[in-house]
Amino acid sequence: MPGTVIAVCVSAHKGTPKAAVARAELLAGLGLGGDAHAGPGDRQVSILGHEDIVAFKVRVPELVAGAFGENLVLGGLDLGALGPGSRLAVGGAELEITRLGKDCHHDCEIRRRAGDCIMPRRGLFAVVVRGGSVAPGDPAAVLHAVPRAAEPEPRKLP
Question: Which domains does the chain have, with CATH numbers?
Fold first, then answer.
């Protein structure tokens, strides 16, 4: 089932919340134009699922898109099932998932306020394989799914 781009977010400085914009360009090999994190590397674009954000809003109702530092909020896709190597069509661009989650920075406002942050568990990072424009309301789809490896069971002591 196809999904939808719910929000596109950028920030001028690293380590700050991102702000929603009406449209942006995903630049091949670089990331989201106008974002402080744009550049070469394997974390060019950060992604969260809309459903994950909505579920977290029970704790912090005033959350807005970009609060977790995410570039793209996608709805209607099972992002939690995708592992590295998965490919997404987002607006006019194509992304490849490279990483799952990341540690929050030391002064994560969301973690301070809510005692938790979903980016380490639910966030995805991707590279831009094919550039293109992206805006809220654009279609989003899984082009190729690589299953996410199951998390290891906690080790039980004898």
Answer: 3-144 (2.40.33.20)
